[in-house]
Amino acid sequence: MPAACDSVLEDIEDIVSAEDLKPHDRQFVRKNIFPKVRKRNSQKNIQSDDDPPSDSIIPGAQKIWIRTWGCSHNNSDGEYMAGQLAAYGYKITDNSAEADLWLLNSCTVKNPAEDHFRNSIKKAQEGKKKVVLAGCVPQAQPRQDYLKGLSIIGVQQIDRVVEVVEETIKGHSVRLLGQKKDNGKRLGGARLDLPKIRKNPLIEIISINTGCLNACTYCKTKHARGDLASYPIEELVDRAKQSFQEGVCEIWLTSEDTGAYGRDIGTDLPTLLWKLVEAIPEGAMLRLGMTNPPYILEHLEEMAKILNHPRVYAFLHIPVQSASDSVLMDMKREYCVADFKQVVDFLKEKVPGITIATDIICGFPGETDEDFQETMKLVEQYRFPSLFINQFYPRPGTPAAKMHQVPAAVKKQRTKDLSQLFHSYNPYDHKVGERQRVLVTEESFDSNYYVAHNPFYEQVLVPKDPLLMGKMVEVNIYEAGKHFMKGQPVSDARVYTASITRPLAKGEVSGLTEEFRHAPRNGTNWKAHPSAEIPVESPLRSWMALPLPWQRGGGGLKMLSVSLALLAVLVVFYYGGMKTEL
């Protein structure tokens, strides 16, 4: 029997039987075929107009409300996140009700701050808002029950906030909590040249380092910010110069402990400050943030010289926390009361008129009445013009939370007693009649005055004249209160314009270079900043995330993948049921 392959096939038509449809018959039949709409009988396939499928959401078109609690470092992080989101196209709104997403930037120092944070989460959920959490609370304790199922951006990952917001809007839960490292060495955090929106266009907050070298038994911030990691001096100076080019006239240096700056990278705080002073234009000022006593003791001589510089506020925030050595030992503060007094006495002598601000905790575990009286005596002796009084709150997971607690009523009474002592004296009465030089930078809470600061960073209220904003002027002090003085500008005095250019408008994004402004959205000329992987709690289209202009690297391949995927969908849709003519 001949094999099937032995027969010769003269033409393709030879395999078509007489019963098969001919091409013209097939075409005639197709003209009588109409597309049929497939019914969706499953409730889960139904999407409401208010909740469109995630693939149909256009990133960057939503409104975002940002709320920040806590220190100036946290405020700086909030400004950076706002800037990146605005640069990508999201609208930052002051109206929480109209926002599509709430970005809540938390503080873990005290219980009340976390309570406000928790209540805001609940309010957002009740209002059907998307939520992204940031700051020290979720970084320190991401597994808390009330944080479950919510997106979190870690304190060192703020340069990836756009990715987290985009995925959250699509209904995904994303958590970025990793640490930034370079060859195994921990970095200070996100880059300093990221876009940002300054809360006050005249004030730039620069974080010089993150974390600290201490292990205070009451501190929860350490769990979030970790060990000391400093930014290089050249990056900090560049950031300061950029700020002045954008109309800033006042710089705040901030961190968990500015005095420890540089110990991890082979430099120190005075070296940084002298470099920064060189970059400050006439009429602008620099304010130094909080420093603990141990790390400034060895630099007292240099610090006194710097604080005497005309473009540096003669102001220093040095927390003492308690005037009892036994309490300080239980706190693991690594200094004694004599060390604190040595710092204050030396600076008061070498920097006449300097303002020393300090912090005190009332009712720390084990604090006796005698311990507290020592603290009262210290305040009576120095009469600090700026005193931050805090009732002790045990923070979960800290050693102090496991210590024997002072009764709540006793803590409350001690806080009240110290507050009464603080309000019993007026630190500025003797300054009435003085002529002072002040820098005007903001508006008062009651909107009746502009707020300025004299060379000692003491608050001076001046008339609400728009011509004064951002200027350094001379005023005559005619009234003094507990926390402020009032001054009248001197008509014949010289007015300094500190800004070397026009300040940015309120809400305007800082750090948008010409290269960024004209960069294509697909980011083909940019590169992503190396960071931790993205753990997800639902399918995350991370490979599709558009690279952002401040994340340097190639995004062309990703865009090609997106285009091909969309093309494939169209092909399937076209041939999967629509009327087609051959």
UniProtKB/TrEMBL annotation:
Organism annotation: Falco tinnunculus
Domain MTTase N-terminal stretches: 62-170
Primary site of residence: endoplasmic reticulum
Listed PROSITE patterns: MTTASE_N, MTTASE_RADICAL, RADICAL_SAM, TRAM
Chemical reaction(s) catalysed: N(6)-L-threonylcarbamoyladenosine(37) in tRNA + (sulfur carrier)-SH + AH2 + 2 S-adenosyl-L-methionine = 2-methylsulfanyl-N(6)-L-threonylcarbamoyladenosine(37) in tRNA + (sulfur carrier)-H + 5'-deoxyadenosine + L-methionine + A + S-adenosyl-L-homocysteine + 2 H(+)
Identification of the protein by name: tRNA-t(6)A37 methylthiotransferase
Function: Catalyzes the methylthiolation of N6-threonylcarbamoyladenosine (t(6)A), leading to the formation of 2-methylthio-N6-threonylcarbamoyladenosine (ms(2)t(6)A) at position 37 in tRNAs that read codons beginning with adenine.
Record-annotated membrane-spanning stretches: 556-576
Protein's cellular compartments: Endoplasmic reticulum membrane; Membrane
Cofactor mode of binding and number, as noted: Binds 1 or 2 [4Fe-4S] cluster. One cluster is coordinated with 3 cysteines and an exchangeable S-adenosyl-L-methionine.
Coiled-coil region list: none
EC code(s) of this entry: 2.8.4.5
Entries under InterPro entries matching the protein: Elp3/MiaA/NifB-like_rSAM (IPR006638), Methylthiotransferase (IPR005839), Methylthiotransferase_CS (IPR020612), Methylthiotransferase_N (IPR013848), Methylthiotransferase_N_sf (IPR038135), MiaB-like_arc_euk (IPR006466), rSAM (IPR007197), rSAM_horseshoe (IPR023404)
Cited SMART domains: Elp3
Classification via Pfam families: Radical_SAM, TRAM, UPF0004
The organism's taxonomic lineage, starting at the top: Eukaryota, Metazoa, Chordata, Craniata, Vertebrata
Record carries keyword Ion transport: no
GO cellular component, one term: endoplasmic reticulum membrane
Membrane topology: Single-pass membrane protein
Domain (Radical SAM core): residue spans on this chain: 198-429
Keywords attached to this entry: 4Fe-4S, Endoplasmic reticulum, Iron, Iron-sulfur, Membrane, Metal-binding, S-adenosyl-L-methionine, Transferase, Transmembrane, Transmembrane helix, tRNA processing
Gene Ontology MF term list: 4 iron, 4 sulfur cluster binding; metal ion binding; tRNA (N(6)-L-threonylcarbamoyladenosine(37)-C(2))-methylthiotransferase activity
Family: Belongs to the methylthiotransferase family. CDKAL1 subfamily.
Cofactor: [4Fe-4S] cluster
Transmembrane in keyword set: yes
Domain TRAM: 429-491
